[in-house]
Amino acid sequence: QWTTASIVDDQVARIKAQIGDGHAICALSGGVDSAVAAALVQQAIGERLTCVFVDHGLLRAGERAQVERDFVAATGVKLVTVDARERFLSALAGITDPEQKRKIIGREFIRVFEQSARDLKATGDAEFLVQGTLYPDVVESGGGTGTSNIKSHHNVGGLPEDLQFKLVEPLRLLFKDEVRRVGLELGLPETIVHRQPFPGPGLGIRIIGEVTAERLETLRAADAIAREELTAAGLDSDIWQCPVVLLADVRSVGVQGDGRTYGHPVVLRPVSSEDAMTADWTRLPYDVLERISTRITNEVSEVNRVVLDVTSKPPGTIEWE
Ligand code: XMP
Questions:
Q1: What gap in Å lies between CA 251 and CA 296, rounded to an integer?
Q2: Does 10 show up as a binding residue in the annotation?
Q3: C-beta 242 within 6 A of ligand 1
Q4: CB 51 within 8 A of CB 28
Q5: pLDDT value at position 142?
Q6: Residue 149 Cβ contacting ligand 1 at under 6 Å
Q7: Which of 122, 144, 254, 260 has its Cα between 20 and 30 A from that of 111?
Q8: Has 152 been labeled as part of a binding site?
């Protein structure tokens, strides 16, 4: 019978054997898989692991700090943050098609990470690439090291051949709940270990319309309020996730304070699910919905209407793009 502690010991020993006195690099996404994979490798080789965090500007409030402050404090990991916010905004300028947005974000992410990988390789600081591939990913992709499309961005499956990293995948035999237990065993913050799913393309695919700095700021503020209220109501473990979506090209008339407004709606998309393949819309308590709606329309000046998505999956997907 495997205990969580014995999984950790076993994986740390395997990683030590695989990497020897070599160096490794790992892309952190803010999510649980890459964080746990990195923490295991850090236990095994310490300073010889460098983590790279690409800030693409499409993150939610507090996510960069969670990695830069909380993850580093918990693990002592060596971290390089690449501020690529301007680069992503320029690449996304004028783009409204969902698939095009995803492609651009994925492509830019790989390019930015690739440059860091080249730099680290050139200085002899990386021959190994750490990936947070889980057992279900391995099975889905037929046992190879490739991953499903939806995750190809996050798992950085697309590094060019000529970089030739050897892969380290310490989570290959684990399911998500085991990964979370390993994360807790390694002392990672709850906010990372129990983070709900969040798409690699981030807020970029939750703005319906062109992605701009101002729209990101609006959505980030509304999203932070919804998350705060759901957490305060103790509902985090009841829902799979609750995307907040900004309908940036839609305006409606409202009245706020003394005047007429002509602002944007945001959509709340609370869903319950086992595996994201199917989902039901979550019947959130009315008082929680009311608090979220009141706060968003009071505190986020560009938003004058909050609407609720009551579509299951199928026919709707969880994300709007
Ligand atoms: P959909 O919208 O297809 O989403 O019902 C199913 C689940 O996958 C997440 N999702 C993504 N995760 N990269 C990711 O890592 C992506 O490009 C991506 N798109 C959707 C979504 O949040 C939901 O949990």
A1: 16
A2: no
A3: no
A4: yes
A5: 67
A6: no
A7: 144
A8: no
**CA of 242 relative to ligand 1 center, distance in Å:** 12
Is residue 35 part of an annotated ligand binding site?
A: yes
User: What is the spatial distance between Cα 196 and Cα 235, in angstroms, rounded to a whole number?
Assistant: 12
The overall pTM is greater than 0.90: yes
Q: Which residue has the tokens 């060019």?
A: 160
- Nearest-angstrom CA–CA distance, 151 and 203: 16
Ligand 1 center to 29 CA (angstroms): 14
250 lines ligand 1 (CB under 6 A): no
List per-block mean pLDDT (blocks of 10 residues) for the chain, which spans 321 residues.
92 98 96 97 97 97 96 96 98 98 96 94 93 89 48 53 89 95 96 94 98 98 98 96 98 92 98 96 98 98 98 98 97
The distance between the two most distant Cα atoms of the chain, rounded to a whole number of Å, is: 69
Evaluated on CA atoms 204, 223, 61, 27, the torsion sign reads: negative
Complex ipTM, two decimals?
0.99
CA-proximal residue: ligand 1, atom 19 (nearest)? 199
276 within ligand 1 shell (Cβ under 6 A): yes
Q: What are the chain's domains?
A: 4-193 (3.40.50.620), 206-308 (3.30.300.10)
Closest CA to 113 of 46, 28, 32, 45: 28
